[in-house]
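Good day; I would like, with your permission, to put a structural problem before you. I would ask you to consider whether the tokens describe a fold that such a sequence might reasonably adopt. The full record is reproduced below for your convenience:
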Amino acid sequence: MKITALEALVAAIEEGSLRAAARRIGTSQPALTKLVRELERKLEAPLLDRNSKGVIATSQGQVLFEHAQKVLSELSNATEIIHQMGGQMKGEINVAAVPVAMMLLIPETLRTFSRAYPDIRLRVSEELFIEQLQKLRKGEIDLVVGGIPEGLPSGEFIIESLMETKMVVVAREGSRHLRTKKLADLANESWIYTGTSEQTGYASRLFEAHGMKAPPAGAVVNSTLALLALLGSADLLGLMPEQIISHRFGQNIVRLNLQEPGLPLTVGVIVRSGSVASPAIRHFISHLHRAANQLNK
């Protein structure tokens, strides 16, 4: 199969229009139609359904579309890596970061990395950790910066530790919980869970570490911004990396002085072990370590 034909099919399905697809890849509509029909003849299957509104993928076309996307992405990555190995530091890095990394590590890393490599485009997203790992497995992102979870499949990822932190119990200023000294006394209070469910939340892990069942969930959120907003508006409890409390985003949030220690958490960078890390990615990881070292001073 010709790469140009796969590009034509991908463009047609993504654009939903042969005319728009032709304009996108810089060819004429008849030439693009010819490329797609060559694919259909080669595979002996229809790939596009054509109607008055444009085109959509057939079931066979959808299968080829998904695989073609991966092929084209891998070829693009290979081209970038080869150019970077020759000293042409151009390309793109897709980074997914959890909130603590987004607040404490990413800003300084972006500042120094972008200054050193201005022609490398950076795409940074904040998502739930489970979603990040799924995208990393699919190759949709290049690396994850976040807490290192337990039980990662052996050999699937390469992990580098960046910093140590501690998830500590917090509440808003003036909360009735601030005088509490024992975690057990908070077992029946409402907590904010950060994650996809109560089972994945740090609060569950903290209580389990001290031999207690998980406390009731007053809310389940998927971002630190939502956590901060709820803590500030209601007398709820939550867990937060201790560095964020002293950050400007942590204003009006107070750490409870409990007898029990917080929940240890290692923040690191994760990449797929089966992929070749480009020079740009290796340099980005170096700048992450530099930002972490400054934070740990």
About this structure: The chain has three domains: 3-85, 94-144+272-296, 164-265. The mean pLDDT is 86. The radius of gyration is 24 Å. Residues 52 and 288 are 51 Å apart (CA to CA).
